[in-house]
Write a structure and sequence with these properties.
about 170 residues; mainly alpha; two-stranded antiparallel sheet; 9 helices; about 55% helix
Length: about 170
């Protein structure tokens, strides 16, 4: 897992993740400019760096690239947590400390996640089974959590050299 994203990398990736579609440098630039003064070439460089690091794929469309996230924000967060946890000399103590910092909502999300991983999620319709924490999760939250277990590593890289309008820059 690569290092944690920098502030500008995170701002760019947030848009790519939220929009959940191929995006151009121009689209990201225009959205970022609502918050800060930033140059086109700066955003282009950041997106190229994210591509080189394996966070986004890109395809040529006309004279520009369209960038798509390689993994979800949830997978990124999970990898960061896993990396931090693996550096502890006492994994159990680290988890206990982490759980102690969690809000009640975060603890419920953790319980929901355990239920999903264990397969406790009933296969019957909610109206037949009654309510459970997993059933109370939004479909989007269930799908995103499920994607984390299916994601490929963020460092997936395309074979060979890139071609296109910005290649070699």
């Amino acid at each position: 897992m690569p290092r944690q994203l920098g502030d500008l990398e995170d701002a760019v990736m947030t848009r790519v993740w939220e929009w959940n579609r191929p995006v151009t440098v121009r689209e990201v630039l225009e959205d970022l400019q609502r918050e800060r003064s930033i140059a086109y070439t700066t955003v282009m460089t950041v997106m190229d760096n994210l591509h080189q690091k394996g966070w986004v794929r890109r395809e040529v469309e006309g004279r520009a690239y369209r960038y798509t996230a390689v993994s979800t924000r949830a997978a990124y967060a999970a990898a960061l947590m896993n990396e931090a946890w693996s550096k502890s000399d006492n994994a159990a103590a680290a988890l206990v400390a982490f759980f102690g910092m969690m809000s009640p909502e975060q603890r419920q999300s953790l319980e929901d996640a355990f239920s999903m991983v264990r397969g406790d999620r009933p296969e019957v319709a909610p109206e037949e089974a009654g309510s459970s924490p997993v059933e109370d999760m939004s479909e989007e939250a269930v799908e995103e959590a499920s994607e984390v277990t299916r994601e490929e590593p963020a460092q997936e890289r395309a074979e060979g050299a890139d071609s296109g309008p910005d290649a070699g820059r």
